[in-house]
Amino acid sequence: MQAIKLGQIVRVRSRQYLVEEVTHPPLPDGDTLVRLSCVEDDAQGQQLEVFWEREIDAKILGGANWETILHRGFDDPRYFSAYLHTLRWNCVTSTNPKLFQAPYRAGIEVKTYQLEPLRKALEMPRVSLFIADDVGLGKTIEAGLILREMLIRQKIRRVVISCPPSVVRQWQEEMESRFGLIFQVFDREFVAAKRRERGYGVNPWTTHTRFIISHALLRDESYAASLRDWLGDLSPSPGAMLILDEAHNAAPASSARYALDSQLTKSVRELAPKFEHKLFLSATPHNGHSNSFAALLEMLDPQRFCRGVPVKSQKILDRVMVRRLKRDLRELGDRDFPERQVIPLRVSGLPSDAPELVLAQLLQEYRQLREESLKETSKTKQTAAMLVIICLQKRLLSSIEAFSRTLKVHRQTIEKQASKVVTASKFPLLQESTSSDDDRAELPELEIESCLLYTS
């Protein structure tokens, strides 16, 4: 078999690739490890590692020679001109940060305002960007455009997306359907499958280059440790990108004077320096506490921000953050986000014994009793109890059936706890509101509310 060299164009598995790295075997009878980058339009930049001698259809593609031109003849000038302009455009866009390719390779209708994060990211030597657009403006699309452009320009090789458990599948589907990017969901089932296939000692992170992992698993040291091993000792790891969705969950929990690190905060703080490029996404980046906000920005860009030092310069913040609200776009003439108007609908003529009125009155009386009984308790306990009451009111406004199901779950929980005769002091977590580090974050909503209602 012909020896393969760096920079050659080869055909492997029915696709054309560029040879980026060749690792020769240490032993004479070993196999050559070749790292390839796809050059076809529908998968440009996609990485592939193969053992060259083991591939069935592997073939080195030779360049055109003069004999081929002699027999075939020259191309039509119009076709050659179009080909030349295409090559020139591709070469320019690979180096010019003001020219984009990703919007033309995405299966979506890109809005003008969604290109601003892409423009700002390409102007950075290393991407450290906080996309804090309002809900519904398309932060996922903006992150996908940046990711796709970075892959096309071959600036990144490995990508890790961390998001809440409820949107893991959504991220996977959107990356595949809108940008043609295949991601592997890193969960317990995936780890167990790889250990069955390759042995218990295998690092599952080494089996792919693009992963999606939930916040719940990212803060688990058994998964974070293997991720650090995969990224290596070099900080930052060249060509590695971290996309952190709902980044405000990683901000330290705020108290009166100090920002207290949660387990997710510790995990992100240890992992972030190992990624060369970082994208944080959140519609609510600031929780009202300057210490917590500064600590979050320090994880994104430790060169500009420091924990404990309030961010006072808007100019410095604008260099790493993109923040637009819907009202800002309406002022610019964007008609895709009309102003929401709340119009009350008054229903009159109902009998005084109507179920809706009776239930609403009973729930209001229950709320007053709860407020009276919680006057001497902590503020956290009062807030948790009131949140439960608000959820019950929402269920009642939705439908009587929804309210009945929620109330049934509450009653079952109360009876279950009462049968065990367990005091609430043995479960301090149940007296507080759920945070991003609380295991109850993965429980059904109704069960959480039931626990809160009983223990409050």
Automatic annotation (TrEMBL):
<keyword id="KW-0067">ATP-binding</keyword>
<dbReference type="GO" id="GO:0005524">
    <property type="term" value="F:ATP binding"/>
</dbReference>
<dbReference type="InterPro" id="IPR027417">
    <property type="entry name" value="P-loop_NTPase"/>
</dbReference>
<keyword id="KW-0547">Nucleotide-binding</keyword>
<protein>
    <submittedName>
        <fullName>Helicase</fullName>
    </submittedName>
</protein>
<feature type="domain" description="Helicase ATP-binding">
    <location>
        <begin position="120"/>
        <end position="303"/>
    </location>
</feature>
<dbReference type="InterPro" id="IPR038718">
    <property type="entry name" value="SNF2-like_sf"/>
</dbReference>
<dbReference type="Pfam" id="PF00176">
    <property type="entry name" value="SNF2-rel_dom"/>
</dbReference>
<keyword id="KW-0378">Hydrolase</keyword>
<dbReference type="InterPro" id="IPR000330">
    <property type="entry name" value="SNF2_N"/>
</dbReference>
<keyword id="KW-0347">Helicase</keyword>
<dbReference type="InterPro" id="IPR057342">
    <property type="entry name" value="DEXDc_RapA"/>
</dbReference>
<dbReference type="GO" id="GO:0004386">
    <property type="term" value="F:helicase activity"/>
</dbReference>
<dbReference type="InterPro" id="IPR014001">
    <property type="entry name" value="Helicase_ATP-bd"/>
</dbReference>
